[in-house]
Specification:
This protein has 5 helices and 13 strands. It starts with a helix and ends with a strand. Helices cover 43% and strands 26% of the residues. Strands 3, 5, 6, 9, 10 and 11 form a 6-stranded mixed sheet that branches. It has a 3-stranded antiparallel sheet with strand order 4-8-7, with no helix packed on it. The protein is an alpha+beta fold.
């Protein structure tokens, strides 16, 4: 890793791999699968997050008109009867809309297909939980995503720079910290405010995992920045930087929005964590 270009390549590979992993494991990304009906394989994608003021669409690319479709749903963690919502025929298959919920409200649902006495549930052995949120303007969301992505990229690069005893340790540490502050502690709360009407739901106000893991990453890089500014050539300083980078990687691998804001329908208050 003595060559700067190699460190950049490794940092990019680590960043992209972790981003792909997080996208595949996050609780708000669509639930995807396939089902076989009469020998025909049908793919489906059921949403687990919905932003904005409208209802959440539910669709299934099933053109076989011998089946009737329903969306069966209820409010999440509420002891109530399941509701059965008919799906309508469109040119692309079956379609329905789950009713809009307040920010952080969740619905539990699945698709039910019926043909005579035959019944098929999608997914087969579980339900899908979707969370509603307010609409986050793109002028806030896109910069937040970009700053967090580049903060993670420079975190990995700085950690490799420390291991290789590279000359840019102090500069990269500062860049990482600034990107993280802007993306996580300035733009992050703005996203949270638009989505769930609260700027911060982590410690000391709550246990929102997204906010708390951002705070942990910031504290790790604050410690690294302090050490670099105090004595950049000290071996323990470089190990502190490596620690901050590893901590950031561990934090980033935690699926986004896990243990996030959730509306308690009994009290109509938003819980965090």
């Amino acid at each position: 890793m003595q060559k700067p270009l190699l460190r950049w390549i490794l940092a990019i590979l680590i960043t992209l791999s972790a981003a792909a992993y997080q996208r595949l494991t996050g609780p708000t990304y669509p639930f995807k699968g396939e089902i076989s009906l009469d020998g025909q394989s049908i793919s489906y994608k059921l949403l687990r997050s919905h932003g904005g003021a409208g209802n959440q669409p539910v669709s299934l690319a099933l053109l076989d008109t011998s089946y009737s479709g329903y969306v069966v749903f209820k409010r999440y963690k509420v002891n109530e009867e399941w509701q059965k919502l008919p799906m309508h025929r469109t040119a692309n298959g079956l379609y329905a809309e789950l009713p809009h919920q307040p920010p952080a409200g969740k619905l539990e649902y699945y698709i039910l297909l019926e043909r005579g006495t035959e019944q098929v549930t999608i997914p087969a052995h579980t339900t899908v939980v979707t969370r509603f949120k307010g609409e986050v303007p793109l002028y806030v969301l896109i910069p937040h995503i970009l700053f967090m992505f580049f903060a993670f990229l420079f975190s990995n690069l700085t950690g490799l720079e420390a291991i290789a005893r590279g000359p840019n340790l102090a500069r990269f540490t500062f860049i990482t910290f600034v990107l993280l502050i802007i993306g996580g502690m300035i733009l992050g709360p703005l996203v949270q405010k638009h989505a769930f009407d609260a700027y911060w739901t982590g410690i000391p106000f709550g246990y929102d995992l997204t906010d708390n893991k951002t705070l942990i990453a910031v504290l790790g890089w604050l410690l690294a920045l302090w050490a670099v500014r105090k004595n950049p050539d000290k071996p323990s300083t470089r190990w502190l930087v490596v620690f901050a980078a590893v901590l950031m990687l561990a934090v980033y691998l935690i699926p986004h929005s896990m243990m996030g804001s959730e509306l308690d329908y009994n009290s109509m208050k938003v819980k965090t964590g």
